[in-house]
Amino acid sequence: MSSPEIEALVQSLSRLPGLGPRSARRAVLHLLKRRESALQPLISSLQAVDERMLSCGTCGNIDTSDPCHICRDHRRDGSLLAVVEDVADLWAMDRSRLFSGRYHVLGGRLSALDGVGPDDLAIGGLLSRVETGEVAEVVLAMNATMEGQTTLHYLAEQLDRFDITVSTLAHGVPVGGELDYLDEGTIAQALRARRAVG
Amino acid sequence: MSSPEIEALVQSLSRLPGLGPRSARRAVLHLLKRRESALQPLISSLQAVDERMLSCGTCGNIDTSDPCHICRDHRRDGSLLAVVEDVADLWAMDRSRLFSGRYHVLGGRLSALDGVGPDDLAIGGLLSRVETGEVAEVVLAMNATMEGQTTLHYLAEQLDRFDITVSTLAHGVPVGGELDYLDEGTIAQALRARRAVG
Ligand SMILES: [Zn+2]
Ligand SMILES: [Zn+2]
Questions:
Q1: Which of A119, A156, B142, B168 has CB atoms 3.0–4.6 Å from A198's, for a disulfide?
Q2: A64 alpha carbon – ligand 1 mean position (Å)
Q3: CA-to-CA distance for B76 and A19, rounded, in angstroms?
Q4: Domain at A4-52, CATH class
Q5: Which residue from A42, A86, A95 is facing B12, i.e. has the nearest CB?
């Protein structure tokens, strides 16, 4: 067995999504052999993220400033708002570079199974943003999962009373798929062909 | 796009073996959502490893002390020495719990392609350890790759002048396989059935 310090690090790393115990061990050895070129830069990057990252009070994005750089970017179209479940979805969508509007992160999706109801999501904040009258179109960019679609229909109902366009991503998002695993091309296609809801 | 701090962290993480850019991004988000329970403990584990880990001057293992805990363990059989290419192989072999001897880490394998010759490996140190007369058997536990086997035969020749048993791992290690990817059972079987070389 290796030392407790190494075992602790293997454990920490193997809890990350995508890394099992074997690959965590390989990763640790990789780092140990490259202290100055890999281990120390990784520590610095993690510390920078830990010290500087904030949650945007407007959209829920994670960034070094609040409001985040997307909410502050005046070249972005403030009349177009994409609602996503998670920050990972926001990043995935933004990497497609096709969306010029702003975002709203729900922080999850409605789930009877996990006991997640409307009050657990940032829905009040979304409605407030729409109430200002600045938003002309809301793109409901939920994941194509059962719970994502339930959330989408719930939001479409809530948004029905506003005189705005409510759309959703077009086919192109595979059924059961999660945005964060899609390539930029698929997301771009789905955005281009987005359709009105309800 | 997310902020430069996050992109830098994604880059650092995606250079680890086993993590691509997508899974690195997922890992970062996982950490950002769990600062106290995941991000900060990971930073501490990495720092502990960076500050405390030493290379053992005797066997090449990485541990908090030099000599390492294996070299200092008097319950270990000092007459039995397993030679491995890499520290990961030492750990993999030690996890099988079947080997009661000590280790010698070469720090690589002979490779004409990568320009790795005998002087680049810890072969002098191995011969010195055998010369003390304490070693009765050397288990050449190279990977079952072309270069591993070339290294094995080179070492078997070097060890020929000593009055010791030179053995290697039995079939059980798949051809082309690397120790670090094997389960403990396979390694244990290969150790049990180890055979004499040359
Ligand atoms: Zn924002
Ligand atoms: Zn040692």
A1: A156
A2: 10
A3: 33
A4: mainly alpha
A5: A42
